[in-house]
Amino acid sequence: MSIMIVLLRNKTVTKAITAGFALLHIWFTVYCWMNLNKTELTYFTYSSVGVLLLSALSVLTIPTVLHGFIYASKDDTKKYNIYHSALIALMMFMTGAYLANGMTVLWIFVEATTLAVAALIYHDRTEIALEATWKYVFICSTGIALAYLGVLFLGFIYGREDASNLSFASLSGIINQANPMYLKIAFVFVLIGFSTKMGLFPMHTVTIDAHSVAPPPISALISTTLMNVGFLAIFRVYSLFSSSSVLPFMNNVLIISGMLSLLIAAGYMLKAKHLKRMLAYSSLENMGLVAIAIGVGGVGYYAALFLVVLHTFTKSSLFYQMGQLSRILHTFRLDDCGRYMKLYPAGSLVLLLGMVCILAIPPSGLFIPEFMILKGLVANGQWFVLVASVILLCFVIYAMSTRIMHIIFSDPRGENATLPPDKVNQAETITQFVLLGLVVAMCFYQPSFLVDLINQSIEILPR
Asked: Is the distance from CB of 424 to CB of 328 less than 8 angstroms?
């Protein structure tokens, strides 16, 4: 489909193909649900965790396509088609990564997402976009190379000629006979390498910079479903190694990485002057909580997956709203923003509700997994991590709430806030209210199919 769009060079045809792809993706997700744990084409298995994250992507497919149509509507045909061609490719690559049943195939699809995202970051063809694109390609390629070293150490586990078989099923049968040193080295390389996609410390900077220049609908995917790809890669390896003696080591590494992610996110959010960078650091904070949740173990496993799903819906809605905000205020600079409630009440309500949801303030569904994480820390007696996390989360709450309130109610502080606002159809906020409504609803009720899928995804982990 991507190649067809580039060759035809017709906006109407591009719209039809992209819309058709969105519907096809939803149908394929339903097919995966109906054939859970089935293996097809040798290299793909519809595992519980893969289908869970694929479902989150499928929910975002239609709103991402719709907001993409609006964002790129004034582009010439060439730019318009390249945008949608790369968008379809990105969704296909993420789908392949979710369903891959081996480390090699997973690594290939993760690397492929780098190329698709690079084309989307450079969409506006500005000097800043070019710089961000090259930085993204370079750092992601370096990270993926480090992840590949982790894959090589997984190959050393075999110690025989069939080391090329790196499927998760074959690896699980021999993990307990492997050299623990190989396992530790492999996990560290995998964590550092795939943190470029998960947006986790220490390779978090690449996603932060990408958000500043990427189109808002693409930022929504980078900050949610693409981060989920990185999470899945790390979670797959963690699940494989969890039955071995290196489990305490992995837990400590994840908690340290999560705490440092929280620290960096809190510090930079307090001085953030760019709205999309602020949301990007918020994603870093949430991925830090996910890493801590896995490191806590027990209830933390369920909390991590539940948090990933809810964060996907919440953060994407906020980035969709950033696209409308930029058309009204003509900026992402905090000092040039203000009086948003007067200019665009529907968008202001999205920001208010989104702020409540992303900060895990009841009735936000994110309150449930974050409470479970704190509960797990108490149960494990990890008081330092508990206190430090709560303090850092307080800084995050202060930083985001003061900035959102300034955008909505205060007057602009900058000297450049003089352009007249554009008109935006308030119907564009419907998708955002739907996503945020799902997040609020899950504070009170978690559907049985979601609970079952999460439980199936963590059933092999120690309790």
From this structure: yes
What Cα–Cα distance (Å) separates residue 408 from each residue in 194, 220, 255, 334, 404?
A: 36, 21, 36, 11, 6
Closest CA to 13 of 84, 118, 106, 61: 84
Whose structure tokens read 């004034």?
Answer: 74
190, 237 Cβ separation under 8 angstroms: yes
Whole-angstrom Cα distance, residue 323 to residue 66? 12
Distance, CA of 387 to CA of 374 (rounded, Å): 9
Residue 131 near residue 215 (C-beta atoms within 8 A): no
What residue type is 167 in one-letter code? S
Q: Is the dihedral of CA 31, 35, 40, 45 positive or negative?
A: positive
What whole-number distance in Å separates Cα of residue 219 and Cα of residue 226? 10
How many CA atoms within 13 Å lie on the side-chain side of 458? 19
- Count, residues in the chain: 463
Token pair for 244? 């071995």
Which amino acid, 457? S
CA distance 399 to 278: 9
Spatial contact of 436 and 353, defined as CB atoms under 8 Å apart:
yes
| CA atoms of 39 and 30, how far apart (whole Å) | 15
How far does CA 169 lie from the centroid of its chain? 26
What's the rounded Cα separation, in Å, for the pair 240 and 323?
A: 40
Q: Per-residue pLDDT tens for 80-131?
A: 888 888 999 999 999 999 998 888 888 889 989 988 998 898 888 888 888 8
**How far is Cα of residue 123 from the mean position of the Cα atoms in its chain?**
20
Q: Check: CB of residue 136 under 8 Å from CB of residue 114.
A: yes
The reported pTM is 0.92
